[in-house]
Write a structure and sequence with these properties.
The protein is α/β, with parallel strands linked by helices. The protein is built from three helices and five strands; from the N terminus they run βββαβααβ. Helices cover about 35% and strands about 35% of the residues. Strands 3-2-1-4-5 form a five-stranded mixed β-sheet. About 30% of the residues are buried. The model has no long low-confidence stretch (mean pLDDT about 95).
């Protein structure tokens, strides 16, 4: 199964962000006092991994529009910021037991 993930973050007011998470044709909106497009991309990826586990899939292909997230999950790029490390670690934990391929899409 292929999941297409996308995360968008927009400033809607000072110190207020709208994160839009897309997984295939599903859209999720989240309002937060912090945020970035990378955080939104990690959140979308985590949702895709949760869906894959609930569906009982063993092999998953995840395409993400954010290359930073893909390369960090593959281990090709370092993850410096703590908030990015938390997203990476959460996705890696969710991927336990799955054969996951990460692609830039």
């Amino acid at each position: 199964m292929i999941y297409y993930c996308r995360g968008i973050c927009q400033v809607i007011a000072p110190d207020l962000f709208l994160m839009i998470l897309q997984v295939n044709n599903l859209l999720f909106e989240l309002v937060s006092d912090t945020g970035s497009c990378h955080e939104a991309a990690y959140m979308a990826q985590a949702i895709a991994l949760r869906i894959a586990k609930q569906e009982g899939l063993k092999t998953v292909i995840i395409e993400n529009t954010n290359r930073h997230v893909v390369y960090q999950l593959r281990g090709e790029w370092r993850t410096r910021r703590p908030v990015m490390r938390r997203g990476r670690d959460a996705c890696r934990a969710l991927a336990t037991g799955l054969d996951v391929q990460y692609r830039v899409g």
